[in-house]
Amino acid sequence: MTTAREIVVIGGTGMLRPAVHELLHTGARVVCVARRPERAAVGAPDTGELVTVPADWAAPRHLGEAISHAIAGRRVDEALLWVHTPYDEGVHEVLDPLLGEGATVVQLWGSSGVDPRRSRPHPTQYAPPRSYRSVVLGFADTGRGTRWLTNHEISAAALRGLRDNEPQQIAGRVEPWSDRP
Ligand SMILES: NC(=O)c1ccc[n+]([C@@H]2O[C@H](COP(=O)([O-])OP(=O)(O)OC[C@H]3O[C@@H](n4cnc5c(N)ncnc54)[C@H](OP(=O)(O)O)[C@@H]3O)[C@@H](O)[C@H]2O)c1
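Structure tokens predicted for Short chain dehydrogenase:
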């Protein structure tokens, strides 16, 4: 018997909700972590593989324990992270012991105010054979200027991050940052 693909998604009820739904459509088990994770179920396919974990990234120790409980001793092989800085540092720390040896971690970076490439330290927990990939959220062109990305575009970029081993990925464009909406 093959084990189901299992992915931990932190912050999966906002712009990453379409990604959570797509992963469920593919038959994956999705461990969705947020303060109100049940919001991920709205519009989701009823596969029975959505595991909701209520936790706050401002309380990382509890967040780690809650994920550990949800995965019941299995190792996390894939994680998709949307976590506001600086809370991401605590999240990396508590995820570290839960991750498999060759785990893939994709972290999204976005901000409407500051060029997101500037606020992106490289976490130390994901040395090879683990893979750490950052996906920087940029903006898209319209006929008359630029706009921010939609949730579907962001989710598509996040899923590409799980597939594509390029360590630094950009959704939309970021150059020049002064073109942002
Ligand atoms: N570049 C672009 O095109 C683009 C487009 C859209 C957004 N953005 C950027 O992305 C950001 C959007 O931020 P947002 O927070 O509004 O995103 P969001 O898509 O609403 O996501 C917030 C997610 O994080 C979870 N969350 C929030 N606080 C949490 C906490 N303390 N602990 C655990 N989970 C938490 C939320 O669930 P709960 O509330 O239930 O915890 C939700 O799942 C902005 O900085 C914006 O500039 C960029």
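Helices lie at 17-25, 60-71, 87-95, 151-163.
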